[in-house]
Design goal:
Structural class: mainly beta
Catalytic activity: Hydrolysis of terminal non-reducing beta-D-fructofuranoside residues in beta-D-fructofuranosides
Keywords: Carbohydrate metabolism, Cytoplasm, Glycosidase, Hydrolase
Enzyme class: hydrolase
Strand order of the largest sheet: 25-35-26-31-32-33
InterPro entries: ConA-like_dom_sf (IPR013320), GH32_Enzymes (IPR051214), Glyco_hydro_32 (IPR001362), Glyco_hydro_32_AS (IPR018053), Glyco_hydro_32_C (IPR013189), Glyco_hydro_32_N (IPR013148), Glyco_hydro_beta-prop_sf (IPR023296), Suc6P_hydrolase (IPR006232)
Number of strands: 35
Pfam family, one: Glyco_hydro_32C
Oligomer: single chain
Largest sheet: 6 strands, antiparallel
Bound molecules: beta-D-fructofuranose
CATH topology of the largest domain: Tachylectin-2, Chain A
Number of helices: 2
Helix content: under 10%
Number of domains: 2
Length: about 475
């Protein structure tokens, strides 16, 4: 939603209780609230931040402007979870409240250091002429949720980057702390800078160099770069804005992508043997995916279900955006798989045969098998007038197509109304489909291909129809 700058950057303390109540009342009126996905209490949710493990729990913050569905003065909102399925807001926030983050506590990461959680984020600072000075700054969060910001700036804007320099991700590689930061060079090309904590002291960051990951610079900015290690292979997750379509086919305003690499050369510095760039998600919206290597050995990721610069049907209710399910990464036969954590099965409430299922409450999981050499068309969020979200899984030609041109309230149609990806032709396929009121996450072949999307159904659009082909399996009602 377009709101004037004065509104979006109005100091938090200037909003009256009455204004805040009005916003909350409006949010409550939406017919599209999710049941088991994390949404903002009010306002806009964008990137996942500080996804980590600390104090016996998983920690996840989200970027938020709390006063409406717009990108304004951002804060981090804290949630925690024991099972990665249920997330609880604790009331802790990292607010833009000092000279080093005056225009927003922008995205970043977190890692336990000693008995505290170190938050590494971008302080978005602007001067009176609206010139931006992006600062990489830090804060401690203790076990009681007290936040103490560092006084010193950890990384200043280098000479060879523009104002687009943000989203530090801290990670531990062989006992040494490193951080990568997304950047734009003076030729307006996206790249990534690698830093190292001197003596592993998170107050002292030294530049190692520009990380060679086989990028071409066809993007103008790399947002939210994340490096995780899957079976010791470095996997770079990133959001390259403006990436040339000759390099990668994508339809969303900005893609969310990855590369699987063979090794990490910390000296050069380089991600050696980087694959081509690949779409992380083929749906209508998934962005700024954040991942980390959890202490239990899993590689966990979570994505913003939303995109920058897009208006959503929920904007009229003063909120926008949701967090995806938490996914576990693995590599099989050289391919990256993303699949919801095992604990998601806790939400399965009742099981029925898929073929018996016609009417739903739009809160379910389908677990389906589609035989080889069949063109199967399913309609979800269906009504009896031929509307709904059409999913075609064609195992004959090897294609998956998601068409939302007849599904609920239309929006962002400038970017097209269908999305697709390829599959191996002539092979059986499976689909696990999570539907949550206005969210759908589709995992083909247990996460070989993923489609994450919003759908804003009208009253009564909650049916399931098998239009053609064959699909067998189960329907699970999911309990929020
Ligand atoms: C990505 C992003 C980040 C930035 C944050 C601000 O969506 O633009 O690069 O830190 O959002 O909210």
């Amino acid at each position: 939603m377009n709101l004037p700058t004065e509104v979006r950057y109005r100091p938090y303390q200037d909003w009256t209780q009455e204004e805040k109540n009005k916003i909350a009342e409006n949010v409550a009126k939406s017919p599209w609230h999710s049941g088991y996905h994390l949404e903002p209490k009010t306002g806009l949710l964008n990137d996942p931040n500080g996804f980590s493990y600390f104090n016996g729990k998983f920690q996840l913050f989200y970027q938020n402007w709390p006063f409406g569905a717009a990108h304004g003065l951002k804060q981090w909102v804290h949630t925690e979870s024991e099972d990665l399925v249920h997330f609880t807001e604790t009331g802790v926030t990292l607010e833009p409240d000092n000279a080093n983050d005056s225009h927003g506590a922008y995205s970043g990461s977190a890692y336990q250091v000693g008995d505290k959680l170190f938050l590494f984020y971008t302080g978005n600072v602007r001067d009176e002429n609206w010139v931006r000075d992006p600062l990489q700054v830090g804060a401690w969060m203790d076990k009681d949720g007290n936040i103490e910001k560092f006084k010193e700036v950890l990384i200043q804007q280098p000479d060879d980057v523009t104002e687009h320099f943000r989203d530090p991700q801290i990670f531990d590689y062989k006992g040494q702390f490193y951080a990568i930061v997304g950047a734009q060079n003076l030729d307006k090309q996206g790249f990534i800078k690698l830093y190292k904590a001197v003596d592993n002291d998170v107050y002292k960051w030294e530049l190692v160099g520009d990380l060679d990951f086989g990028g071409t610079g066809s993007e103008y900015m790399i947002e939210c770069p994340n490096l995780v290690f899957v079976d010791d292979k470095p996997v770079l997750l990133y959001s390259p804005q403006g990436l040339d379509k000759s390099e990668l086919n994508y339809d969303n305003i900005y893609p969310n992508t990855y590369k699987i690499c063979q090794s990490f050369d910390t000296e050069k510095p380089a991600l050696v043997g980087a694959s081509e760039i690949i779409n992380l998600d083929y749906g209508f919206e998934a962005y700024a995916t954040q991942g980390f290597n959890a202490p239990d050995g899993r590689v966990l990721t979570v994505s913003w279900i939303g995109l920058p610069d897009v208006d959503y049907p929920t904007d009229q209710y003063d909120y926008q955006g949701a967090m995806s399910l938490v996914k576990e990464l693995s590599i099989k036969d050289g391919k990256l798989y993303q699949y919801p954590v095992v604990a998601m099965a806790e939400l399965r409430h009742s099981q029925e045969d898929f073929s018996d299922k016609v009417a739903t409450e739009n809160s379910y999981e389908l677990e389906l098998t589609i035989p080889a050499d069949t063109k199967t068309e399913l309609r979800l969020f269906a009504d009896d007038k031929g509307n709904g979200l059409n999913l075609t899984i064609d195992t004959e030609s090897g294609k998956v197509i998601l068409d939302r041109s007849q599904a609920g309230v239309q929006y962002a149609t400038d970017f097209g109304t269908s999305r697709e990806c390829d599959l191996n032709a002539g092979q059986e396929a499976t689909a696990n489909i999570f539907v949550d009121k206005s969210i759908i996450e589709i995992f083909i072949n247990k996460g070989e291909k993923v489609f994450t999307s919003r759908v804003f159904p009208l009253e009564g659009q909650s049916g399931i129809q098998l239009l053609s082909g064959q699909a067998s399996g189960s329907y699970f009602e999911l309990k929020a």
